Amino acid sequence: MTHLTLTARRQRAALLGGSLVLVLLTACHADPRPAGTAPASTPAAAATAAGLTAQQRLNLLADTISTAPADTTDGLPYTYLHLQSWARASTTIVRTDVRRWRHDADGSGREIIRRAPDLHGLNHQPTPQERQEFSRAVPHTLHHGIGDLHPHLPGDIPANPRELIRLLAPPALADEPAYPRILTSGIVELATSQHLNPRQRATTLRALAAAPHLTYKGTTTDLAGRTGMSFQIVADGSTSTLLIHPDTGDLLAATEWINRGRRPGLHSYTLLLAHAHTRSTDMPTSPTTAAAVTRLR
């Protein structure tokens, strides 16, 4: 009888132990932390922990990506974006604030554009104070007809990062010095042309992780005062820097600086301040939808 009792107890212990092992394995799945690293309290802490490569950080963030209020707006007809940009045009820097509503079904929509005075010369580092000039600029409203506004990629964004990479950067150019620039630029264009849901953001992060010459530069802040994870690519005479939100995986800001050539200096600086889907081109100024828009400020 004693033997039978002990056997039953051992069987229950084995079952409980097996369940515990299963839970631990599930919790640790795809954890790229080096052996001996203490578990992080949050996904952000894990992705910014010491000792990880840039690729490990992006893949870990893609695995643990969190949702944002704007992710609940899928199914509404208009994509809303708020962007501020500094971009070279010949020998000047053009500064623009754009709020854009695009009807996803037919490509029509509306934009409200404010232009700060252009700056002469290319050796310019944008400052937070410059953003105040947008609020003083006269707004201009543009109405776009059917087919006038397009996302960077037509159709659905593939879930496979390799397929996304092929769409963003031609495989035939993979051995060219400019390839990392092309891929990085494609990722920026994708994020600043449409709202990306968590799955799409995760795929984009994995695509960025595959970019050649990628390095992690630590955490820093953008012109809007937001802190993110800074990833940099130096290739083809330029330096591209992407600032990624450490929880949601959103692109916060992107910079490209030309290092050499006849006209070195700033090529572009872009802030992605808000994104979502809305019911009409009058939103997200409506109080009923303001909380659903991801304002990345």
Q: Which structural class should the secondary elements be placed in?
A: alpha+beta
In total, the number of strands is: 10
The biggest beta sheet reads: 10 strands, antiparallel
**N-to-C series of helices and strands:** HHHEEEHEHHHEEEEEHE
Mean pLDDT: 85
In DSSP terms (H or I, runs of 4 or more residues), the helix count works out at 8
Strand content: 25-35%
Termini separation? 69 Å
Structure description:
By secondary structure, this protein is α+β, with helices and mostly antiparallel strands. Strands 1, 2, 3, 4, 5, 6, 7, 8, 9 and 10 form a 10-stranded antiparallel β-sheet that branches. The N terminus is likely disordered.
Q: Key terms for this structure?
A:
297 residues; 28% helix; 30% strand
List the helices and strands and how they pair.
Elements: H1 2-27, H2 43-47, H3 54-63, E1 78-89, E2 92-103, E3 109-120, H4 132-136, E4 140-144, H5 161-168, H6 179-191, H7 198-209, E5 214-221, E6 227-235, E7 238-244, E8 251-258, E9 265-278, H8 287-290, E10 294-295
Helix pairs in contact: 3-7, 5-7, 6-7
Quick recap of the structure?
This protein has helices at residues 2-27, 43-47, 54-63, 132-136, 161-168, 179-191, 198-209, 287-290; strands at 78-89, 92-103, 109-120, 140-144, 214-221, 227-235, 238-244, 251-258, 265-278, 294-295. By secondary structure, it is an alpha+beta fold. β6 (227-235) and β7 form a beta hairpin.
